[in-house]
Design brief:
The chain is of the alpha+beta class. The protein has one helix and 20 strands. The strands form two sheets. It has an 18-stranded antiparallel beta sheet, with no helix packed on it. It has a two-stranded antiparallel sheet with strand order 17-18.
């Protein structure tokens, strides 16, 4: 064995020190790599970030507001504006959501809504002009004049479909419907009292006329009661029956 001199001993200690430093550097490098890999994987798996605000405003190149998203009366609302700042479209959420379309320069408006009781479409000018709605399962189409008076209605109820026409005062003057399984046409006076009816019930046609005093004439099939027996029978389509204002039979043929 070669004896170690002080110089040799110094070299050996320096080599051992370098070896220890090299091991620490390798360990630090490995730890840094593991940390980088973990951060990278977390970044890859992290979902898209969330931006929160009370209101968002979109402006065009001229700085004009063209769209807004925010809360209005506790309802989230998205509104679009034209170049002059007029709100041309608006979508509002909440329990009763609706979509509104406006025509700039006038009062034309389209409203599409859905509430707890009904849903439908409404068209407006200065007043409501037409509406299509479904209420409690019954659809109806209403058409209004410029004064906002209802002039025509198409609806479907449990009794059957019907088409009604009203005068300028909103009084229903004509109704075409399917009632009790048969088609009927009813005409009314300006007090909405029925004066004329043309119908077909159980394949039996009849035409009925009545005046303001209560007198009535029926041409065609109608139900009559025989006073002596109390039995009810139906007349033929070739019969004419007249009733007094008390509802009693005045005359019949045959």
């Amino acid at each position: 064995m070669t004896p170690q001199t002080p110089h040799t001993q110094n070299i050996i200690e320096r080599l051992e020190k370098l070896e220890r430093q090299n091991r620490r550097l390798k360990q630090a490098a490995l730890a840094a790599f593991v940390l980088f890999a973990a951060v990278f994987m977390m970044g890859q798996a992290r979902p898209i970030g969330t931006t929160e605000a009370n209101k968002f405003v979109l402006r065009d190149a001229g700085g004009r507001v063209r769209a807004e998203l925010g809360m209005f009366a506790d309802h989230p609302t998205l509104t679009f504006h034209d170049a002059r700042g007029f709100p041309v479209a608006s979508l509002e959420g909440g329990d009763d959501p609706f979509l509104t379309l406006n025509r700039a320069g006038n009062e034309v408006q389209v409203l599409l809504s859905a509430s707890k009781d009904h849903y439908g479409l409404a068209l407006y000018g200065k007043t409501v002009r037409a509406g299509l709605a479904v209420t409690k399962g019954s659809p109806a189409l209403d058409i209004f004049d410029e004064a906002g008076k209802e002039r025509a209605t198409v609806d479907v109820t449990e009794g059957g479909p019907s088409f009604a026409l009203s005068d300028a005062n909103g009084k229903r003057r004509a109704v075409l419907t399917v009632f009790m399984g048969g088609p009927y046409l009813w005409l009314a006076d300006d007090n909405e009292k029925q004066r004329f009816s043309l119908g077909l019930h159980a394949n039996a046609p009849n035409l009925t006329l009545s005046d303001d005093e209560g007198f009535q004439t029926t041409l065609g099939s109608t139900d009559l009661v025989t006073p002596e027996t109390g039995e009810s029978h139906k007349t033929s389509a070739a019969s004419v029956v007249m009733f007094g204002k008390d509802g009693k039979l005045l005359w019949r043929a045959p």
